[in-house]
Each structure stands twice: as C-alpha cells, then as structure tokens.
Design goal:
Radius of gyration: 14 Å
Largest sheet: 5 strands, mixed
Strand content: 25-35%
CATH superfamily: YbaK/aminoacyl-tRNA synthetase-associated domain
Helix content: 25-40%
Number of helices: 5
Number of domains: 1
Structural class: alpha/beta
Low-confidence stretches: none
Strand order of the largest sheet: 4-2-3-5-8
Mean pLDDT: 94
CATH architecture: Alpha-Beta Complex
Order of helices and strands: HEHEEHEHEEEHE
CATH class: Alpha Beta
Distance between the termini: 36 Å
Length: 155
C-alpha cells in the first residue's frame, strides 16, 4: 500500500481528484528525466518544482516541464523581481518542508507565489512530486493550478 503524503492528504481534504504513482528512486539521478523514464511518460508531462529567491519578493516557485531549464531573467520578470536565483539546496527543507527530488508544489510550509508553465494546459493530466522521492501525483493541471493558487506563465 502506498503511504499518503501531506500533499495527498491536502488534496483529499479539498476533494481534488488525483492518483499517486510510485517509481523507483535512484539517489544519483534525481532529475525529471529519470522520473519520466521510470513512469514511462513523456518528460514534458513530468513537472519539476523549483524554488527560487527574488531580490524583492523573496522565495517563489516555478513548476515547469522536466525538459526545460528555468530562465532566471524570465522567472525574475514574471515574479516582479529584478533578479532571482535558485534557492540553495540546504535552504529547501527548512523553508518548504521538502527535500531535493521530493519537492511538491502542494503543501509547502507556507504558501509562496507560484507560477506554472503554460504547457501544463496542453495535457489532461500532469505529474508533480507528491512530496517524497519515489512518489508522483498525477493530476489535472487546472485542478493543481486552482488548488495551489498559481499563475500561468511561459517560464
């Protein structure tokens, strides 16, 4: 039986439909391409959750397809910052409650401004981390966007 994560419990409480999908974790390969391969899915449907720090806004979140790299200039612009940088990995757990390779856009310690790449809307369902390594949430992008109060942007 799959253990429910905090992210899954939050979706349950809100009545949001989703499916938990386990995959084999390789500690050496935490990137989205490995997850997509394990799931047998197109990497563009497997979304990664990146936490950045803006010079004005502080932390914010970008949820984007595993095939893309974040453009820091675009990320800064859409989040209302002049500059931004990726959050240092050692800051991730204390700030969000999640670790690298298991960071979910759902259920962080506190809500941060969140931006979901527009390509999510091309799919009936997308995959995001369930909040632990080895488990993904398959969810309708509109449901995710509404639940986490995210904005759509071409990140």
């Amino acid at each position: 039986m799959i253990q429910k994560t905090n992210a899954a419990r939050l979706l349950d409480a809100a009545g949001v439909a989703y499916t938990l999908v386990p995959y084999d974790v390789d500690e050496e390969h935490l990137e989205a391409s490995h997850v997509a391969e394990q799931l047998g899915e197109d990497i563009d449907r497997v979304f990664k959750t990146l936490v950045l720090r803006g010079d004005k806004s502080g932390p914010f979140v970008c949820v984007m397809p595993g095939s893309l790299e974040v453009d820091l200039k675009v990320a800064a612009r859409i989040s209302g910052n002049k500059n931004c940088e990726m959050l240092h990995v050692k800051e991730l757990l204390p700030l969000t409650g999640y670790i690298r390779g298991g960071c979910s856009p759902i259920g962080m310690k506190k809500p941060f401004p969140t931006f979901v790449h527009e390509s999510a809307l091309l799919y009936d369902t997308i995959y995001v981390s369930a909040g632990v390594r080895g488990l993904q949430i398959c969810i309708a992008p509109q449901d995710l966007i509404q639940f986490i109060d995210a904005e759509i942007y071409p990140i």
